[in-house]
Amino acid sequence: MASNLVIVESPAKAKTIKQYLGKSYSVMASFGHVRDLPKSQLGIDIENDFAPKYITIRGKGDLLAKLKKAAKESKKIYLATDPDREGEAISWHLAQLLDIDEKEKCRITFNEITKTAVKNAITEPRVVDRDLVDAQQARRVLDRIVGYKISPILWKKVKKGLSAGRVQSVTCKLICDREKEIENFQAEEYWLIEAALFEKNSKTNFTAEFYGRNGKKIKLSSRAEVDQILADLEQAEFSVSSVKAGEKKRNPAPPFITSTLQQEASRKLGFTVKRTMLAAQNLYEGVAVPGHGTVGLITYMRTDSLRIAKEAVTEARAYIGEQYGKEFLPASARVYKTKNTAQDAHEAIRPTYVSLTPAMLKASLTPDMYKLYKLIWERFVACQMESAVYNMVNVDIEAGKYQFKASGRQMKFKGFMVLYVEGTDEEDTEKNAKLPPLSAGDRLTKEKISSSQHFTQPPPRYTEATLIKALEEKGIGRPSTYAPTITTITGRGYVTREKKQLIPTELGQVVTDIMGSYFADIVDVAFTANMEKELDSIEDGAIDWMKIIRDFYGPFEKHLEKAEKELEKVKIADEVSDVICEKCGRNMVYKMGRFGKFLACPGFPACRNAKPIIKETGAHCPKCQGRILEKKSQRGKKYFGCEHNPTCDFMSWDAPVANESCPKCGGLLLKKAGRSQKIVCYNEQCDYEKKA
């Protein structure tokens, strides 16, 4: 019988750790929190200094009984929940429920689930960190007060099912404010002039862009101004006034932290934040790898630190030297500086073993896990590689009283870019362009001069990647809160996602306006960011968590009273569809439920007809000729299936092509998902394909 009990959060993590500890250890999972505030009531004693009233989570009674039995039979108990505030709070609740003394050294943490890390942690247990626990409690109590006090007002004054939240409300406001910027944007006209030129000794022409007049940069804003310049340039002589050549280095991006991983997975893989964190959690907790057993493949995925263990750097540098050669290896290891505001408890996100390459693990991972692991692995190895080097040439050109500029960029040494290049949210306008050999004084022949009209563009709508970047820059929330926050505002119908863009709904704008009028602090960026700093200071032991709640609640209570008295009922009309209710003949309306939008009869409660929204693709099933419909899986992933399901089993993750059939066999055509941009035939016996 095992004499030591280790309690972790998930069964996957338990399985991985059990493999490392042997027979004298029993490893059990708590399946997350075992105790929390009750859902049916506020659960905070406002009159008694905001004391939280914790209860055992419904359905966890049997599990808790098993944990208590195992704890009584064990000599030593180790609480090995995740190494963050939430994990510390779970350990604290477990310690209380299992009657573990506060002074008992029972808490162990590890940044990666490897044999070495787990065995080292077992030898260095510590007491549960009450400062960390209090930081989590303060956040939980604060969020509960905001949510449970404001939400009933929204239910009463707007509509049932609405919610407000300390972080979700300010996040929603950012999206609404951006939409107002777009609506109020006044486009400004501007013009570009380009000259196609070539030097007499070179057969290669190149393009120079208009810069200005008499050495001063000019912004061209009208056709009349452009026409005058074009007329002046008719007889102008073009010549090179100066040439500046040199090298430019581009350094690799640092290893991932939570926010940058979420951003890059959104840009490069099209993953939602929720999808990214689920795949990362699975990689961290452990995967069965043939020949290696169950292995935790990445370090802890909730971190804002860029610190890297020396052993990991050494392993990465050895791999680079062996696989790419010495020219790709900097003279010394790269060190990345973490922001002052970061919690430096963990390392950056990296593979636990560089030797386990993505190609080696592909067969052991789900598609999502493989894509994310490849991203993490490549980013980490690249962060220790040599810089990329470009040859840069900048040329100033005179044309009478006007000036043009041309630039050339040629890759000299790829460096880290042989493996990985960081994605961007904006279009990358830097292109590799080669200029012919030019010297000051060279006469140039004008081949063609062209002008083009443009208009300034409004700021782009937020995507998940750019929203996370904004939240991080403004100090709103923490890495662990980004995913649930975005999930909440989309799930409540405050924001919709179209392609990658986040767009506020009318409901979202109404709720945001109400919050701005009556709870200005809650949606104020500076106030929210300052609150985050105060919550961090609890973790450092610098401030009592109850004081933060007290200071917040006094003014907040007055805002609540004002909203209750003054806020008038807001009527939001449901969006009317063109679908007719077959029971009573009314046009059905769109409603928002727990699982997203659905159609309902506006005659409720007299008529209770409701049904899912059917999205037709215009294509027909290759098996039974029924309509192919766009559907969603239980996890919310889009797929395409036959209307006669379950009697017809046709389904595809790839979108069917409407009004076009295969020219070879007449079969259904599918547009492949992902970046391949191919159209292929559904018939496996047919090899037809073309570019989308």
Number of helices: 17
What composes the largest sheet? Answer: 6 strands, antiparallel, barrel
Distance between the termini: 62 Å
Measured by DSSP, the beta-strand proportion falls in: 15-25%
Mean of all residue-level pLDDT scores: 91
Principal-axis shape: globular
Instruction: Identify low-pLDDT runs.
Output: none
Number-wise, the strands total 30
Strand order of the largest sheet: 8-9-15-14-11-16
Radius of gyration: 31 Å
Task: Name the helicity range.
Answer: 25-40%
Structural class: alpha+beta
Give structural notes:
The protein is of the alpha+beta class. It has 17 helices and 30 strands. Strands 8-9-15-14-11-16 form a 6-stranded antiparallel beta barrel. A hairpin with a 5-residue loop joins strand 24 and strand 25 (638-642). Helix 6 (166-184) crosses helix 14 (479-491).
